[in-house]
């Protein structure tokens, strides 16, 4: 039984290191999918958002962020910007 937990812990640690490496890379080396006109203004105030997600949804969001070399916040901002355009149309 302990072996199963050790494997899970090792897998989780490797996944976390990959995420941290992607997020901590210099901004100049990153290519984000959020367009410049959809990005929030530099002086726009930030707030914290708490979400209640399933574990699988959280993992999917993290992996999506890693694949896009961006942050979960940028993915959510992109989603909000796209849906605001739909509402305004």
Write structural notes for this entry.
Helix content is 61%, strand content 0%. The chain is mainly α. The longest helix is centred in the N-terminal third of the chain and has 23 residues, at 2-24. The model is unreliable at 27-38 (pLDDT under 50).
Q: What Rg do the Cα atoms give? A: 16 Å
User: How many β-strands, per DSSP?
Assistant: 0
What can be said about the biggest beta sheet?
A: none
The portion of residues assigned to helices is: 55-70%
Q: β content, as a range?
A: under 5%
Give the helices and strands as they follow along the chain. HHH
Ends: how far apart? 56 Å
Give the overall pLDDT as a whole number.
78
- Helix tally equals 3
Q: In short, what is this structure?
A:
This protein is mainly α.
Q: Main traits of this protein?
A:
elongated, 61% helix, 89 residues, mainly alpha
């Amino acid at each position: 039984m302990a072996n199963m937990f050790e494997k899970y812990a090792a897998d989780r640690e490797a996944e976390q290191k990959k995420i941290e490496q992607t997020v901590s890379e210099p901004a100049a080396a990153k290519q984000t999918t959020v367009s410049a006109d959809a990005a929030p203004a530099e002086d726009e105030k930030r707030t914290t958002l708490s979400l209640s997600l399933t574990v699988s949804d959280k993992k999917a969001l993290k992996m999506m962020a890693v694949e896009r070399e961006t942050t979960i916040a940028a993915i959510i901002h992109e989603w909000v910007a796209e849906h605001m355009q739909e509402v305004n149309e």
